[in-house]
Design goal:
Elements: E1 2-6, E2 9-10, H1 24-35, E3 43-46, H2 50-59, H3 67-78, E4 89-91, H4 95-111, E5 115-124, E6 130-132, E7 147-158, H5 180-187, E8 192-194, E9 196-198, E10 214-216, H6 218-233, E11 237-242, H7 244-254, E12 259-260, E13 263-264, E14 266-269, H8 278-286, H9 291-308, H10 318-331, H11 338-350, H12 359-371
Parallel strand pairs: 1-11, 2-3, 3-4, 11-14
Antiparallel strand pairs: 5-6, 5-7, 7-8, 9-10, 12-13
Helix pairs in contact: 1-9, 4-6, 5-7, 6-7, 9-10, 10-12
């Protein structure tokens, strides 16, 4: 069965209550898993970031927490004042992710897909942070001290000549055109990808024979986080929800592992949701939308619409979408029809998104959502 998982969200300085746009992929994965009858999946988080290193360094001046403790505290705060996700969290440094990552890297090294190679890089004169192959200011210490040339043994992936970074089979979408702009950007990635980074947090590449300061590149790490979550559930068809911009940034780094161990990882692209637009709040106020319908619209229907409209939902579209959902909510049946749900499940698993604007199918999807929810909720305009 297909398992939808969010592309790991960077653990930045925000909460899901004040910037829910960061949770669009999480909400979409939850909605699609519910429609296919799949048990809730963990929320995936990216913690191997340079910004996280800097923020922890600042916090350490007043709070004696290790990097791991600080990350866990920051992640717990993301969900307040609401409850944490039922299936828990999984970060890109979790033990099961690290175990899988090292096993995969060792196998790919043995086949020649990856290699350990000496690479000419630049190191910061002040903190020895590896800034990459090009001379630019160090972002780890921000001293402006300059860099020096060095040769470091790194984990690398040399992309095969003539092989595209992305193909049709990499996308979970039927009856949709190939995202040409995304494919072109992804294909412009360097031919040699450096999969080692210097970070204060990450999966150490010491077991592969590299310097202990080297950790796995987070763009490869997030793919392995998805694979680890799928392996934990015994699922062989994981689908990662993410935006086109994010896919263009990470696709080349995921290419060595998207088809590994009999598992095929695909991308479900979604657009941006204008959660932060004032028009959304005014819309709820003017139309006196109940809190129940507000949650249904923002946490369930808008993510599904963003999956259908991968270019993004414009603020001008919000009134029409709310009106459509309200009408469908009033018309939903008490008991969803099995044959409609079966076709809906097939559509979701095939990546067919047309049903999102089909009033009849959506009404049964709403009835099914209520039927499997924690408590029955009456349609808009009715009381319990």
């Amino acid at each position: 069965m297909t398992l939808f998982l969010n592309g790991p969200v960077q653990n930045g300085p925000f909460t899901l209550a004040n910037r829910p746009g960061k949770a669009a992929g999480i909400r979409l994965a939850e909605a699609l898993n519910q429609l296919t009858g799949t048990q809730p999946a963990p929320h995936l988080w990216n913690t191997v970031t340079l910004d996280g290193d800097l923020r922890h360094r600042t916090a350490a001046a007043t709070t004696p927490l290790s990097r791991g403790q600080w990350e866990r505290q920051e992640l717990a705060a993301k969900y307040m004042p609401g409850p944490p996700p039922a299936a828990g969290l999984l970060t890109d440094t979790a033990p099961q992710v690290a175990d899988l990552a090292l096993r995969v890297c060792q196998e790919l090294l043995a086949t020649g897909t990856l290699a350990l190679a000496p690479v000419k890089v630049r190191l910061c004169l002040a903190c020895d942070h590896m800034t990459g192959e090009v001379d630019h200011d160090c972002r780890a210490c921000t001293t402006g001290a300059g860099t020096r040339p060095a040769v470091r043994q790194l984990l690398v992936h040399d992309r095969p000549d003539g092989r595209p970074v992305l193909e049709r089979a990499d996308f979970h979408a039927t009856r949709a055109s190939m995202p040409a702009h995304l494919v072109n950007i992804a294909h412009n990635a360097p031919r040699r990808l450096l999969l080692s980074r210097t970070r204060a947090c990450g999966i150490s590449l010491g077991p592969l024979g590299l310097d202990d300061s080297m950790v796995l590149d987070p763009r490869l790490g997030l793919h392995l986080t998805v694979l680890a979550a799928a392996a934990q559930r015994g699922e062989g068809l994981p689908v990662m929800t993410l935006t086109e911009k994010a896919a263009a940034h990470v696709a080349a780094y995921g290419s060595p592992v998207r088809r590994w161990g009999g598992v095929q990882l695909r991308y479900a692209l979604h657009g941006r949701i204008p959660y932060d637009e004032p028009v959304l709040r005014r819309l709820f106020e003017v139309h006196r939308v109940t809190p129940r319908l507000q949650r249904l619209f923002t946490e369930w229907y808008l993510p599904l619409c963003a999956w259908r409209e991968r270019a993004g939902i414009t603020p001008a579209r919000l009134p029409a979408l709310l009106k459509f959902l309200r009408r469908v909510d009033l018309a939903r049946p008490e008991i969803p029809a099995d044959e409609v749900l079966a076709k809906l499940q097939h559509s979701v698993e095939a990546g067919d998104r047309r049903w999102v604007m089909d009033a009849r199918v959506l009404a049964h999807a709403l009835a099914h959502r209520t039927d499997v929810g924690s408590q029955a909720e009456p349609p808009e305009g009715e009381t319990g």
